[in-house]
């Protein structure tokens, strides 16, 4: 199975109460913090570690950052290119991924950032493609409101087309390094892309040569119909959030069908549900940890603040005990899918904002594997072998302890069952994921040339 670690360059893990856990490390503004986590994950032979990101502090609730700051609801987000540079220097094998937005960045910037990381890490870069989520991010980039859903994906389609062209603008073997004759590179193998589209005009070439992977690995997490189509066309790894094994199996079948319809081999794209793992030396210890994380550490106001962030709706005028009505669902962009996911956990009775917000803050819409190392391995094996996933994106309750527990208690179990590698065997991230290097769209067809 493929194992990916999900991180935040932040005061918290993806679980917003993690900063309060007694053993959670507090040196998240020190590069050594991220290097320590990376070394643990590399010891566990994880394929990839990648960082989520937002381009704004959560400010939708009450039109203010006050509650996010007060309760530690992800108010800190460090620049990921700097973080990954530090991690690359401290590791040798693990893949290094970052989230970059197609809505508020430019294709040349993103292409150069990830091509540089791919070279400097020896072929380990991955880009998590997102379209961003709310007005707070828009307002940090001179735009009053976030683009509508379809417009964001229209822009993202063109954005990634341009990035792919830029990554391909240097062919293999372009650098000659002919010092005797003073010829550095072959200009016939370096191409201006001359892209002129609806959203972007980019001349090129990129200022970074063809990378060790050809192109960095692409991660995508679209859950909507448009998002699934986008992932089918572009993604190498698809990051999902399915609350049950049965739902994950159906999602898996649908997404693989879309990949085939997009003209790609379905088994070359990996579907990876995000899963919390809470591991203990005994089941009692694991269940006690679960209770602490889910019932005691997340402040209700932090939950509501994060619900406002992800739905782009200000819930300040509502009480936590307000019932989530059909009228509210219809008026809030982005809430329908979240409500459907939560109802799969809690049933079809009355759903309050408190329950909805807590599920979002603790990301309960994905599976949660709790128990001893063998018990967690049992649950992961069941999903993996039932056609529900090709592996998992493992989310940590706290840093670095949750990953330390997983590597110490679960990874040996997976290895002993033949479900996971014992060592890295590939030279690049694509090698370790068994992904082929993409063809260069500018390279001449050798057969046609010779004919």
TrEMBL record:
One term of GO molecular function: monooxygenase activity
Transmembrane portions of the chain: none
Cross-referenced CDD domains: Nitrilotriacetate_monoxgenase
Keyword Transmembrane carried by entry: no
Domain Luciferase-like: 26-389
Binding-site residues for FMN, renumbered to this chain: 53, 99, 149, 153, 224
Superkingdom per UniProt: Bacteria
Protein keywords: Flavoprotein, FMN, Monooxygenase, Oxidoreductase
Membership in a protein family: Belongs to the NtaA/SnaA/DszA monooxygenase family.
NCBIfam families in the cross-refs: FMN_nitrolo
Protein name, per record: Nitrilotriacetate monooxygenase component A
Lineage start: Bacteria, Bacillati, Actinomycetota, Actinomycetes, Pseudonocardiales
